[in-house]
Design brief:
The chain is α/β, with parallel strands linked by helices and 291 residues long. It has nine helices and seven strands.
Length: 291
Amino acid sequence: MLSQEHNLGRGACALEGDSWTRWLHVVRETEFTQAMWHVPLGRESTVLEIGCGDGLQLNLLRRRFARVFAIDPATIPDSRQGFALGVTEELPFLNQSFDLVISSSVIEHLTDRRRAMEEVRRVLRPGGFALHIVPTRVWKFASLLLNPVGYPMRVVEKWFARRKARMAGPSAPVGLPSTDSPGFFRVLRRWLRPPIHGTFPSHLAEYLSFGQKQWRQTLAVPDLQPVAEVPLLFFTQFGFLRFRFTWARIWAARHGFTSTRAYIFQMLPGIFPIEPAMASKTAVPNPSPIE
């Protein structure tokens, strides 16, 4: 599993550009706020975020809930409280541990989505919620359509950000990955042949998989009942017109032009058999420590 899209943790601004990182945070916070209107849980609920990336939504969750945990396969957020290294396909927690499991721009990057959804079901308590924010066909189409213009603009923005990071020297953020710029031919190849966003075999397969019906099938597991499908926001992969027209972006999303959509499910109440937990699973509130 890859970490949350573009969320590079400490040093993200230095690699991606301060404007881009702040804009991405605005997008994610707007998505989060709209989606959470459909999750009626109290402050004492226990919550898990899968693929927390740089920890933006982890902090948003901590403002709402008293017990918040998170996993990511590689990126360690600045605030490590409640964090464990792990993958969604094998969550390091006991059965029925959480009232809410949430992900944002993560599911499309998983290698085994079916197993991941079964793991989400396993750790949810009866009556708990699963909330997944995923990209749509609108986002995918716009990404490919605008790539000839948008990608060169991002290359220039990243070049200036990395140049600034190199000039910072010892004062650069701790844990910053390499600031070396990619070669000309690599940039040219990326411009002419955009990489596939997630773990799909082709752009066409990815585009088709981002449809509403296909996402319902991907996210559906036994005992999880659909609650809501929420169009969230219109935006592009390249961040055109950042920090502007947020109200128009929300309006466009509600009228068929949404770049992301939230799918919300609720675990059916009642008692059902629970398989014995493996020794490697960890009981909340003590997630696996970071080595």
